[in-house]
Design brief:
five-stranded antiparallel β-sheet; alpha/beta; elongated; 9 helices; disordered N terminus
Length: 223
């Protein structure tokens, strides 16, 4: 059960202690946030009671139950409920009724996501789909990491192509030729440095590149 605690105004309630929910909760705790974790499964609550400071067994679809737990005083909520779509939607509705100002919710499909948005979720995430797309990019190209945003903008970490090595960014004209921006350079055994037009790129350097997704993908495919 949850311990009595005075949560700060920036506290986060995480509802659903599956893989996604527990990963979010643990990361938030490591970042120094006050976190109240919640699940209707007594077994999951017991399993996580020694790893998360504040854990409670409760029915998150009931607004009165959430009110008694003080959820309305939290600045953020993450609905990480897995396969129970009805519970996911009703939980978002309950949080919305309580006036929680920032509600994040996990969706299993686009239709599920649209329902969550209409019910009151401010942000909808698709963790499985996002991870699948990310892995596909990493497997099929020479990208080392890939993050895409909702507006068709992406950031990747990739090895420097031959055409850019041995030159400054101004000399190689990466931005003009490929429509992407080199944000930073990581040289083996050296610290990351922010890139300028005078930054020299050497063979073996890792580049952090941003821009429209299609252009970033094309640049990362260069040899």
């Amino acid at each position: 059960m949850a311990k009595n605690a005075a949560f700060t105004g920036d506290g986060v309630v995480v509802i659903g202690l599956g893989r996604f929910g527990t990963a979010v909760a643990q990361s938030l705790v490591h970042l120094g946030h006050d976190v109240l974790a919640m699940d209707e499964s007594a077994q999951l609550v017991q399993d996580w009671s020694h790893r998360l400071t504040h854990v409670v067994e409760a029915d998150s679809t009931n607004a009165d139950t959430l009110r008694k737990l003080g959820v309305q005083d939290f600045a953020h909520a993450v609905v990480a409920i897995g396969t129970d779509i009805e519970a996911s939607v009703l939980t978002v509705l309950a949080l919305s009724e309580l006036g929680v100002p920032d509600i994040w919710a996990k969706a299993l499909s686009p239709n599920h996501g649209r329902i969550l948005e209409r019910t009151g979720a401010h942000h909808v995430v698709y963790p499985e789909a996002a991870m699948g797309e990310r892995v596909a990019h990493l497997v099929t190209g020479k990208m080392i990491d890939f993050i895409e945003f909702d507006d068709g903008f992406a950031i990747v970490k990739t090895t420097a192509p031959a055409e850019a090595t041995g030159k400054t960014l101004s000399e190689s004209g990466v931005r003009t030729k490929h429509g992407v921006t080199v944000v930073g350079v990581k040289r083996p055994h050296q610290d990351f440095t922010y890139a300028t037009q005078d930054t020299m790129v050497e063979r073996g350097d890792l580049l952090i590149v941003s821009g429209p997704t299609a252009m970033v993908e094309k640049f990362a495919a260069l040899k």
